[in-house]
């Protein structure tokens, strides 16, 4: 009877105690969250319940497994497995706690500061810091697991003896990866580009959606994702429309006939902008910027609070002005001139073609 009750008491007691402690901790976190609603940390910590219970259960089983007296021939193996589970669960718990703390700090910072550029900068930095912490914890956990095996501990001495050769080989083989890694640190703390920035990269317009230690993801206006190595942003020029403020100035060009009513166009442009919600009212203008033998180049200048609104203002101005010109002033649109040529008054000095296609003879001879 004792051989049956002892395993049940040890195993069942560990599981029941784990569930009770997990429930009690969750209730305490719920109460703390209700008392401090301005701090999201307590609600985020509730996400750690599963790894916490796994850590507690594996620790209890690891400490009390010998008392259960089950499979005594495999005690060492089972104890090693429980130790591996405990190490993995602890790493999982540490990552969850670090993520909760980082997310809580960022949420409070975003609520207290209205500067969108600064908030995006902090978000980019904490995202990379969170990834670094996750990577470090993972490496430490894997190293701790490997140390559980005697064969790996014995191989450590030989690895240390050849560390110089290995470091050289690894440095040459991982040169590109290490370059991207250091470029990721440079982007995170050099404030070159941030999550949410509007950029033009390699001719593509989009928004920075994700920043990691090795690559950046750019979401284009047509919902495509462009993945680029972070070393690109530290070695090649790119446009960052969100740096130094989100406000932007846009231009709309028209190629019109020389008889285009510029003053009337200027008044119509102002009327269109007053009815456009995306226009921020900072500035506007219309001027003739160039001329060709057949057309005028007219430039309209408009402003908006960000890149999305400047696009809306530009397409609105272009559409309404072209429609207004076509309805009210069709003569102002560019056209191909097919009228007969007007000869200068001194026709004697002009060589004209005869009816048979040959130039007439002039002078003597």
Automatic annotation (TrEMBL):
Biological process terms in GO annotation: transmembrane transport
One Gene Ontology cellular component: membrane
Keyword terms, alphabetized: Membrane, Transmembrane, Transmembrane helix
Subcellular location, record wording: Membrane
Coiled coil: none
Domain Mechanosensitive ion channel MscS: 177-243
Domain of life according to the entry: Bacteria
Cross-referenced Pfam families: MS_channel_2nd (PF00924)
TM segment ranges: 6-29, 77-98, 128-149, 155-174
Protein name from the UniProt record: Mechanosensitive ion channel
Organism: Streptomyces xanthii
């Amino acid at each position: 009877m004792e051989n049956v009750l002892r395993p049940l008491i040890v195993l069942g007691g560990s599981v029941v105690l784990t569930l009770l402690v997990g429930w009690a901790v969750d209730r305490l976190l719920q109460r703390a969250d209700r008392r401090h609603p301005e701090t999201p940390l307590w609600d985020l910590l509730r996400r750690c319940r599963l790894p916490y219970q796994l850590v507690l259960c594996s620790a209890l089983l690891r400490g009390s497994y010998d008392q259960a007296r089950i499979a005594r021939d495999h005690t060492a193996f089972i104890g090693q497995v429980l130790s591996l589970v405990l190490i993995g669960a602890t790493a999982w718990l540490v990552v969850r706690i670090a993520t909760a703390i980082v997310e809580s700090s960022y949420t409070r910072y975003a609520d207290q500061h209205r500067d969108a550029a600064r908030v995006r900068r902090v978000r980019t930095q904490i995202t990379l810091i969170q990834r670094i912490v996750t990577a470090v914890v993972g490496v430490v956990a894997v190293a701790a697991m490997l140390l559980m095996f005697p064969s790996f501990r014995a191989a450590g001495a030989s690895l240390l003896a050849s560390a110089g050769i290995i470091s050289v080989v690894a440095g040459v083989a991982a040169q590109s990866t290490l370059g991207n890694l250091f470029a990721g640190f440079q982007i995170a703390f050099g404030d070159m580009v941030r999550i949410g920035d509007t950029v033009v990269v390699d001719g593509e317009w989009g928004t920075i959606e994700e920043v990691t230690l090795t690559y950046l993801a750019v979401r284009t206006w047509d919902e495509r994702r462009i993945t680029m190595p972070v070393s690109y942003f530290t070695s090649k020029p790119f446009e960052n429309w969100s740096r130094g403020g989100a406000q932007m100035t846009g231009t709309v060009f028209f190629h019109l006939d020389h008889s285009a009513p510029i003053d009337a166009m200027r008044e119509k442009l102002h009327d269109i902008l007053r009815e456009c919600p995306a226009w921020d009212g900072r500035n506007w203008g219309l001027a003739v910027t160039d001329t060709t033998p057949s057309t005028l180049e007219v430039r309209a200048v408009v402003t908006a609070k960000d890149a999305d609104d400047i696009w809306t203002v530009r397409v609105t101005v272009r559409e309404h002005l072209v429609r207004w010109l076509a309805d009210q002033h069709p003569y102002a649109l560019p056209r191909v001139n097919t009228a007969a040529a007007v000869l200068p008054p001194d026709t004697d000095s002009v060589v004209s073609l005869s009816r048979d296609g040959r130039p007439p003879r002039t002078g003597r001879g």
